[in-house]
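User: Can you help me understand a structure? I only have the sequence.
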Amino acid sequence: MIIEPRTRGFICLTSHPVGCEQNVLNQIEYVKSKGAINGAKKVLVIGSSTGFGLASRISSAFGSDAATIGVFFDKPPKPGKTGSAGFYNTAAFEKHAHKAGLYAKSINGDAFSNEIKRKTLDIIKEDLGQIDLVIYSLASPVRTHPDTGVRYKSVLKPIGGVFSNKTVDFHTGSVTEISINPAEGEDIPNTVAVMGGEDWKMWMDALQSENLLSEGATTVAYSYIGPSLTEAVYRKGTIGAAKDHLEATAFTITDDLKSIGGKAYVSVNKALVTQASSAIPVIPLYISLLYKIMKEKGIHEGCIEQIQRLYSERLFGGDLALDGNGRIRIDDLEMREDVQAEVAELWKTASTENLSEIGDLKGYSNDFFNLFGFKVEGIDYDADVNEMVEIASEH
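Assistant: Let's start by predicting it. Here is the structure, written out as tokens:
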């Protein structure tokens, strides 16, 4: 079939298997071009099919020749209907990992569930024995608690008052004012239940209880802080409450791992175009301005550049450079004073009329479509492609 992008708001309803494969290949080639990383050899990535999770799996496999197990929740294709981008990404990753002689197995299902945890533990036990590195990179709007069956839904709201600021529709370039009502009722605890650290700890407890973590095993979860421009809706909003919980959980997990000399860290990453960030008002406008400035300064990074640097310089480079709260700050280039001062200045005048000049809306839009395998260089989108791709080892 010939596959074209069909969008609804910040979601693309179709994805292109050949474009997704090329995206994965581009990331593999980048990691290989940067040289070997003396990193973990047996890696579990929870939330492994897109964004930072996919970049982590690629960096482990093609930077450190690691055996990887990926857990993800994605829609497989049906005849005449495309699968989700994460499904095609995983199929492409496995194909090229196996071609390179690397162990790679993938588990498609709800990572929050006891069933998927059990399945993962059994595969580790059978195939790898123990895990050296656990990456926790889940981004889901809902979670069904595995023990109680209660279904929690996260919300994106400020806390304490209405938030009003500019945002952009990245499809049209229209800059408008938006207002978001504050959290109410159970909004905060529900968001923490979905996006906080409880599930991360459940994974680590399950692995440790069955002796599946190697001596000195490390686990890393991903977070974001961002500038004062976005903090009312992000870091000081409901999502920020969840991130606070996630970051506090790192210390709890580190205490739990003392017996094996293990450590848990949170890495604060850069603002990037992801399916999750596209849904957050204000963030697309901020990223459009940020990208322009960082590209002009020659310090722009995408997911793969961020994670390759996290691995090579921080996690396995001998200098974690932790901040005062014990976090790894790989958002250091985004948060540079000169970068943030220029973003704040541009923000004041940003409008529908001038955004194409002062921002990088085209870069934002391209990155969004790239997530789904579209607008990828070198792909013939008029060609007939087979949507019925399979993941070699899917469990």
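Now, to help you interpret it: Residues 238-256 form the longest helix (19 residues). The radius of gyration is 20 Å. Let me know which part you'd like to focus on.
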